[in-house]
Amino acid sequence: MxxxxxxxxxxVIERPLRSIAVGAIAxxxxxxxxxxxxxxxxxxxxxxxxxxxARDAIAEYGIIRGGAMALLRIARCNxxxxxxxxxxxxxxxxxxxxxx
Length: 100
What we know:
The protein has three helices and two strands; from the N terminus they run αβααβ. The chain has helices spanning 3-40, 50-61, 63-75, and strands at 46-47, 84-85.
């Protein structure tokens, strides 16, 4: 088995997992999040919210790296963790740096 077919196999396995994770986040946003907001009011410290960040990170980077990014974002959601606009960095962010 060559390296290319191993990479294709990983992609075939990861796509359904990525879709399941994004679907689970969509269910959370539709069913659980409104209840939390109704009981406590909106309390998000960041924009976009952690669930939107998790959805975007997993869609952009995959279940492992995107999931880790989402967990780190949730861990920062505390009084000392900061606030404000914090989007998922683009996957091609290295290409966006100016060249001298």
